[in-house]
Structure formats: structure tokens, C-alpha cells
Automatic annotation (TrEMBL):
Origin superkingdom: Eukaryota
Protein name: DUF7733 domain-containing protein
Comp. bias (Pro residues): 19-30
Region span, Disordered: 1-33
Any Pfam family the entry gives: DUF7733
Species this protein is from: Triticum urartu
Key words of the record: Membrane, Transmembrane, Transmembrane helix
Family annotation (PANTHER family): OSJNBA0044M19.10 PROTEIN, TRANSMEMBRANE PROTEIN
């Protein structure tokens, strides 16, 4: 007994397998209504930490208004880029996919770890030690750099949370523009640390040396990051993928071609 459900029941309800195949649970990335089914969290712990650090530095009166204005005005500019210059249309590659694969990805991970130590961990310890020792001059010199780094991490997370809105060139523009701005901040930091009056009374000599070394290291690191990685390699690769790739997962397609070859051999 089929209970009146099935192809043998007169006027019954047809099973899904008898008609058109059911629609996919998640639309393909190339369809006009596609939305990634991954879970993107805008305000993660990392995002909240960087946003809090940027807010504290911004309200501490140690960060110039020009740096705050740059971070705030960059957001509507990215929206304009995403809408007019580099829209994420159907058929464009997934912006969340890694740009570099293989050994280059390992080198990029090591580069990221080095950047975290030089640009985030050590300057944070320098600022905290300045709060303990009362070195307001050293804090004011390092604060713009720390603010720009916190704002960059938050902005990168913001663009990554909306992959259907911000394409790969827009996401690549974030570290490029922040690195250019940070070069000026690091140069000003180094200039203030090298002043003769920096080592006045009440300032430990170790803080003077640490401030100069940190400022010089950040200027060298971010200069190399901008002129030896972002501009000659990362940004061109992002533009190449945006304009030349067809949006198909090449890894999956390679596996599919291999499976087809195996099927032909078996037949």
C-alpha cells in the first residue's frame, strides 16, 4: 500500500525525483542571487579588540585628527570602489580564497607573524611601559602607528565579512593604503625619537633606545612590505585574478579533471 503517495496513485503527489531536480541548498557563487553560505562574523573577538584599541587611542588625544579622519573617510571610499570600480559581480573569483598557494603561502604566514611582532606586540609593550613610567612623549610618538594598525585590522575584517560586497581588488587596496599612510606615521615617530630633547630628565635611557629601534624597525618593515610585496606582487595578483579568472575553483576543477581521466582509463 502506497497510501496514495507516489507515481502509482491516481492523481497522487509526484515525488521530487520524478520531475525537475530540486534546487541546490546553496546557490552557486556565479548566480545573480548568490550569497555565500559560510558564517562570517563581523564583530569577532579580534574585531572587538582592534576596534576598542583604536577607539581608546583616538580618544586619548595622542592621535592626530588627520589619522582619525583617514581611517573614517576610508570606509566610504571603499564602498565607492566596490560599487563603481571593482564590483563583485557574478562570475568574479571568490575574494575570500587565498591569493598565494604552496610555499608562497608559508612565506606569507611567516611575514604576517613577523609583522605582528614588530608592528603590534612590541609597540603595545612600549606604550604600556610608557604608561607605567610616565613617558607621555614616547606614547604620543608611537600612538599614531598603533592606531593605524588597529584601524587596518578592523577594516580588513570588515571587508572580509562581506565577500559578496567587497571584491578582491578592494580588499587588496586596504593594506596598500594603510601601509602608505603608516610610512608617514613611522617617519614622524622616528623623527620625534631622534630629537635631542627626547632623552631628558625622567626618561629612562632604555626607553629612548627602544623607541628609536622600534620606529626604525617599523619604518623598514612597512617600507619593504609596501615596495617589495604589496605593490609588485600582491596587488597585481589580485587584479589578475579579478579580471582574468572565471570564478571557478581551480583546485576543484583539477580534481574533477583527474577523476574524468581515471574514468576514461577504467572504461
Amino acid at each position: 500500500m502506497s497510501g496514495g503517495v507516489g507515481p502509482t496513485a491516481g492523481g497522487g503527489i509526484a515525488l521530487p525525483s520524478m520531475g525537475q531536480p530540486p534546487p541546490p541548498l546553496h546557490p552557486t557563487p556565479t548566480s545573480p542571487t548568490a550569497r555565500p553560505h559560510h558564517h562570517y562574523y563581523l564583530f569577532s573577538i579580534k574585531q572587538l579588540n582592534t576596534l576598542g584599541a583604536a577607539a581608546v587611542l583616538a580618544f586619548s588625544t595622542t592621535v592626530p585628527l588627520s589619522e582619525i579622519a583617514f581611517a573614517v573617510l576610508l570606509l566610504p571610499y571603499l564602498l565607492l570602489l566596490a560599487s563603481l570600480a571593482f564590483p563583485q559581480r557574478p562570475g568574479k573569483p571568490d575574494p575570500s580564497a587565498p591569493v598565494f598557494l604552496g610555499p608562497a603561502r608559508l612565506l606569507l604566514a611567516a611575514h604576517t607573524v613577523g609583522g605582528f611582532l614588530v608592528a603590534a606586540a612590541l609597540p603595545a609593550l612600549y606604550i604600556l611601559d610608557g604608561l607605567r613610567s610616565g613617558d607621555t612623549t614616547g606614547i604620543a610618538a608611537a600612538a599614531p602607528h598603533a592606531f593605524l594598525l588597529s584601524a587596518q585590522v578592523f577594516t580588513e575584517g570588515l571587508t572580509a565579512a562581506f565577500p559578496w560586497r567587497f571584491s578582491l581588488p578592494v580588499r587588496a587596496a586596504v593594506p596598500v593604503m594603510y601601509s602608505v599612510r603608516r610610512m608617514f606615521a613611522a617617519g614622524e615617530w622616528l623623527r620625534q625619537e631622534m630629537e635631542e630633547k627626547r632623552g631628558g630628565p625622567g626618561v629612562a635611557q632604555r626607553r629612548v633606545v627602544a623607541g628609536r629601534v622600534l620606529a626604525l624597525a617599523n619604518m623598514a618593515f612597512w617600507g619593504a612590505n609596501l615596495f617589495a610585496f604589496l605593490l609588485p606582487f600582491y596587488l597585481p595578483r589580485a587584479l589578475q585574478r579579478y579580471y582574468c579568472d572565471d570564478g571557478v575553483d581551480r583546485t576543484a576543477r583539477a580534481h574533477g579533471d583527474a577523476d574524468e581521466d581515471e574514468d576514461k582509463k577504467d572504461s
